[in-house]
Batch of 4 targets.
Target 1
Amino acid sequence: MGIKVGIDLGTTFCAVAMIGDDGKAAVIPNEMGERLTPSVIQFFDDGSYIVGADAKEALDYGEEGCAAVFKRSMGESGVYCSFYGRDYTAQSLSEIMLRELKKQAEKVTGQRIDEAVVTVPAYFGELQREPTLRAAKDAGLNVRQLVSEPTAAAMNYAADHFRENAKVLIYDLGGGTFDLTLVQMKKNDRVDVIRTTGNSMLGGKNWDEELAKLLVQKIEEDVEYTECDIHTHALREAEKVKIALSSAMKARAHFTLDDYGSCTVEVTREEFDDATAHLREKTRGLCINLLDSMKLSWRDINAVVLVGGSTRMPQIKKFIKQMSGREPLSRVNPDEAVAIGAAIMANLKAQPYAVQKITNDESVIRTLRKGSVPAKETAVESLQKLSVSDVVAHTLGKVTVNRDGTGYKNQIIIRENSVIPVKVAVAEQFYTKDEGGNESEIIMLQGSSENVRECTAVCRYIVSGIEHDPTHNPTILKVQYSYDANGIVHVQARQGDSDKDLPAKKLPAPDDMSRYYEGISAPPAKAKAEPLRIMMAVDVSGSMTGRPMEEAKKAMCRFIDEFSCYPGDVKIGAMAVSDRTQVVCELTNDLTACREKVGEIEVCMTGLCNEADPFDEILNRLAVARGKKVGVVLADGVWSYRDKAITRAKRCAAMGINIIGMGFGEADEEFLKAISSGEIGAIKVELDELTPTFGKIAQELGGGRGGKSRRLFGGSKTPPTECETWPAPGEQT
Ligand code: ADP
Ligand code: MG
């Protein structure tokens, strides 16, 4: 049997840990006997490479072919570095790193690695987690889970210092990232992560850069020497000086300058601390926000645990003591805590999915129920009792058309700090187009703002195989959104009552998201279409009995549906006409209500024959309306008072109302032409063609969702409703 390991894939250092025969988790040293492996790779011209301490040394000496700090660029598209004609991405470099760690750990332990938990900064979003997971899989690891670094550190702490109800703040300042996580220890040896936040661009490297600036400044003061390369020299020295200043009050850096010879500069700890005060302050801001969001004060925090190599700087300990009023704990080894915690987590049972509920306050969905407490059961005795629940750092949403159709917004689906794994399923109306190939596009966002521009587009899904509904009614698409235990996004879709998932392809987010930025804060004029007012009139005389009436109503509904995404103000009304006219629906922008009223129209509701005409009522309602005015009149026979109808229709035309005369059956084409006006004019069709023709007319008037082969899901004006969830990808049921 092989082993289960935890791997801390750090920006500057990596570590691998496992639970030993004594039931204690410990770091596995690398082939050189070191517990930490620098995250540095040196490539040679034949394509071979070395990893770890030797590569780091080469980097420090400024040798060719060295790649470092690539974790910071995880998720950025494109090449991170190129050596000897080969390109490397942050993902491919991570893969090399992980493969090497695996190889060495297997060699040192003499055992095969069966499963691995790989850690990532809590603040890593979809764009960083997805390539990290792929890198680990491509490195030949069977990845049990990606877990957040501070969560792993909390597990390491809890394994030795469990105290029920204690609230512990994990302050994790590594080489490239800062993570801040609040955990609470609960009954039944549960460790719950409550909040997590951070900054993926803040770490020891920033302290190095400030120190390098300070060194350059000092050299220039001393020797009036300016060489463009000096900053690179200084940066190389900075980390050493920084580390020296952690144990001494002053430290020196030596430089060999061309044309000048060697020089030495001295920096005091005080100078260094002053020059980096703004960096400490950035972490204070995040601490305060986190406590505020929980309505907690420092007094409510039982312990602050320091993790990450950069918390070795005395300034950090001092700063935390001064901020929190208590001595921070360094009972965990800040370099090893993450790997050890990950090794513990590699032996815990998987957590069940939490199911989220939609609340009524318009598309806001939040967690109402947490995952149930899992059975307490782990592989290793001494750690058997622990269980952990983690949260996600980023709010998940999708691009959707806003309520008045004037632009796009981020529709929030799962809030940040929701327990993971988590899923939510919603049902929405979806309009298929007439023939074949119905697809829907769903663009996923991370970020809490409703403004798409302020969010990160993380991926998109193309849902295909949506079956066309020949009745032209909207079909129901159920879509399930989830964050798996790795914090990675999944989208699944089902049509109607089917229990089969439709094909859903995950693709990178669109390169250019700018079209979705328009019209959110200030809708540009061009995005908005002119107001539209439409009165529909349908002949309900006796000759419409049976199929004609059914088809007419279906066509009218389809017509209304086409305007569900109209990019402007649209109002539609409907009336029945035979011996009398009756307005069944006054002009309204509530298209769902209008559709319902049309459904209630019945044959002969206003008499058996065709004595009346609809034009006076149309004129009444549209004459003074704003925008484009249209009357759609559907008839199947000949009207009793033709001339009167034509005169009234002409009056409508004179008031700028476009009349579309639609007929089928015995309808008289000459008459239809006489009552029609405007660009579209008179149309005579067969009964079968009625619905598609109504669809086309609607599209010509500026409606239309059916016209595009693929449309953005979520354009419907009817809000999504909650529906039953189903198994998520990889969910064990
Ligand atoms: P990561 O996990 O991001 O690789 P680590 O937690 O291993 O980061 O921390 C590495 C960072 O800690 C580096 O920036 C390194 O310079 C810094 N560091 C390590 N030891 C010390 C020390 N004694 N004093 C100050 N900084 C240190
Ligand atoms: Mg680390």
Target 2
Amino acid sequence: MDDRTSIAPPCAGLRIGDVAPDFEARSTIGPIRLSAYRGRWLILFSHPADFTPVCTTEFVALAREAAAFDARDCALMALSVDSLFSHFAWLRMIRDRFSIEVRFPIVEDPTLVIGRAFGMVSAQDNDSATVRTTFFVDPKGVIRAMTCYPANLGRSVPEMLRILDGLQAIDAHGALAPANWQQGDPLLKAPTDDLDEVFAASDATGWFLRDMGGEN
Ligand code: BEZ
């Protein structure tokens, strides 16, 4: 049996709050450097391989929603171990079959240097394919959220947009986003750290579980 208990899972290397490691690489839009995206939001995501079914559906879905990411001042950047010419051939196939042009960059990472730096592949893993990791990087270059899905489960583009909306709303209002929060829903106020406010609250939860009201 494959005992993987001692192997660090992908996504384990970096934590929320870390600065995203910088890199320079070839991509489908030319050479790019991660730090050049400072000042904008960035979603950096890996996919296991070009020309695979689930990945193809993800790229079609993301390309169809490209304007929604743009409207939120968020760039998309994909990455896999496949070569630049594989990326080109795949994008051409997607254009011809699905009538959509993928215009966000896909980085080539044949040596796994970037994938390893981001924990997209385990250092001990023999399989060079990256899993479906997604890093939400804020305009200062800080990782604010990350998700990790297996190869056989595609990401949800609405959930990617919801995470981005939530992070942007939290920052704009200094607030908290509750369970199932969607753009336009009320945000929550951070709990008080003042005992007088705890005792002054009109009910037992009013000091820690309260809407922002008209403040967002
Ligand atoms: C896919 O995208 O369909 C896929 C990729 C790698 C392994 C399994 C499925």
Target 3
Amino acid sequence: MKVSELFGKGRTVMSFEIFPPKKTGSIESVYSTIDELAELRPDYISVTYGAGGNVANTSTRDIAAHIKNECGIEAMAHITCVNNSRDEVLTVMDGFKDAGIENILALRGDKSPDRPPKTDFKYASELITFIRQHEKYNNIGISGACYPEGHTEAEDLAEDILNLRKKVDAGAEELITQLFFDNRFFYDLREKAKIAGINVPISAGIMPVTSKSQIERMVTMCGASLPQKFVRMVTKYENKPEALIDGGIAYAADQITDLLANGVEGIHIYTMNNPYVAKKLVSIIEKLL
Ligand code: FAD
């Protein structure tokens, strides 16, 4: 089932995001994490794609196939194009299709200074156009990424939204946001997207933060701003790891409660492969969805 068909049914769609194990980790360790997350019955679980975009790296496919075929939960496999040629994209897509995966998150991927990008695709919208040119993928749902504070390479949010419209016009049927800690950025994006004629559901990406180093990493990677309320919470509990986890969950629950009250269509939880945190968060929000 295409993920876009989950929307518009009178309740908010709840999804999780997980990542494959690092090169040294075992895939089995992720399967036990997924089995615990599956007990929470999210509407779908998405699986990230290694930044290197190596075709030989099949763990995204195998994990998404486990979610779909063993757990009976809709799966979404991420795919990036910055380091893939057209032929390599087709190889990855055929692998997804053969494994029964019906949804992808089509991304450009981050450019790495250590690895010059391949030249077949410049933007995610080109990847989506290319996939949509192939009839054999007609049954595969395509989602795209969006950025409440604007993508770091865009001049401003207005320019980024014009580019986002190209992604939707190319065939993205749902959008998932980068994480954010101040809901005002999400409402701003949603309003401006509507004005730009973007009419697909936008799921809000929420990350319950659990450690100070995680916050620092995230801010460096995606440039999310940290509101005073959040900074005060982190500063108060930064030397009490267990309290910081509870604070992070409470902050995320508060953000989600406000989003739900304001009619958000989807909540996408960046689980960081931590079922304990996901379970605690879901226990607070599940009746509100
Ligand atoms: P694009 O949509 O191509 O946008 C990139 C930049 O180009 C933006 O500044 C945009 O404004 C601009 N642009 C777009 N189209 C045009 C155009 N036609 N003309 C001019 N400018 C244009 N990365 C991974 O490596 N693996 C993952 O699994 C992964 N999962 C993610 C999941 C989510 C929900 C999100 C939000 C991000 C994820 N990322 C992942 C990170 C993502 O790859 C980076 O943010 C990347 O820098 C941009 O990807 P994109 O698909 O949004 O790119």
Target 4
Amino acid sequence: MATVSVVMGSDSDMPVMAKAMEILEKFGVDYEVRIISAHRQPDIFFDYAKTAKDRGVKLIIAGAGKAAHLPGMCAALFEGPVIGIPMKTSDLGGVDSLYSIVQMPTGIPVATVAINGGANAGILAIKMLAMTDDSLAGSLHNFLEEQKDSVAAKDAKLNTEGYKAFL
Ligand code: RP5
């Protein structure tokens, strides 16, 4: 049984969705992953989203581009939280995807991350799950501390070696 469901509208979304899955794997969170198009396969999509809760899914990470209705329709059909990832697009730069995902009507929210924000979607999922999982909360704490330390290490390098060391 997968705790998180990762779904994307097309295989062209995979490089961004992989960033979210890498985070889930890093924290040892079970997930299922699907390519389902809400527009091209509405019946299959409907069944996927309607049965997610019964499959044990606690939250959905959904990525899509252009007229990106997949995350919003996940939120309409699934009662748990949905994290939406807007894909960068060639014609409108991903603003089309962003607006399609973020501007949800009252009552049906989608927690929308940045355009191509796959890693942040994964981290946000971990933060949500860590609220009721002490072991995950500990791993999250260590991750955030390591992130803090890595910036401090760059600052120390800047001060000892100068800016040219970064060029
Ligand atoms: C969306 O249309 C997908 O999420 C993808 O980002 C976009 C383009 O899909 P393809 O034409 O690459 O399959 O449904």
